[in-house]
Amino acid sequence: MHSTGYTGAHVDNVYMSRGSSRLLTCWQPFGDVPVERGTLAVCEGSHRLPGFKHFQETYGNFDVEAGNLHGSGWFTENPHEVSKFGGQWRTSDFRAGDVLIFTMRTVHMSTANLTDYIRISCDTRWQPAGEQADRRYVGDFQSPEMKFGVHSTIVDKPKESVSMEDMRVKWKL
Is 3 exposed, middle or buried (0-12, 13-18, 19+ CB in 10 A)? Predict the structure, then answer.
């Protein structure tokens, strides 16, 4: 997905909250990636600043699968809608070998890929060995369908589903 492709603002906790609360994401670009090719951007302090308290208690605690969300799980596509809670968006050109590590509560998104080149990256999750993992993502399982994100395999809206817009109104965000 390139030529203006990007990922909207979200926290990973809405997708992976059924295991360790100390799960970390490690994002690595494969090769040099300038901002205009779609790097990761984080909202500095979004996991701990007081202005994000209500955001984290509502959206940050939402389980998109259990909540029967129809859509990507992104809070927004517009980074300015997150900036109102505090924090500043940070990104940089990334070089081969760089890594970005952040918590499941850190609001992040990608910059748009404005080039004709693809950006290849990898994100992995790390947690203390003695803590329970989210069973949806580890162990022996059969090819689950993609329920969320850009490559979701669900075409029809599930019965009794909610949209992020519905939830934002409910949460007064």
Answer: exposed
- Tens digit of each residue's pLDDT (9 = 90 or more) over 86-135: 999 999 999 999 999 999 999 999 999 999 999 999 999 999 999 999 98
Q: Is 20 helix (H, G, I), strand (E, B) or coil?
A: coil
**Lookup: tokens for 143:** 């090819």
Which of these, 77, 78, 74, 52, lies nearest to 64 by C-alpha position?
74
What predicted TM-score, i.e. pTM, was given to this entire model? Answer: 0.88
Q: How far apart (Å, rounded) are the C-alpha atoms in residues 84 and 150?
A: 26
CA–CA distance, 49 with 76 (Å, rounded to integer): 19
The amino acid that residue 168 corresponds to is R
In residues, how long is the chain? 173
CB proximity list for 128: less than 8 A, separation 6 or greater: 20, 22
In whole angstroms, what is the distance from residue 92 CA to residue 35 CA? Answer: 6
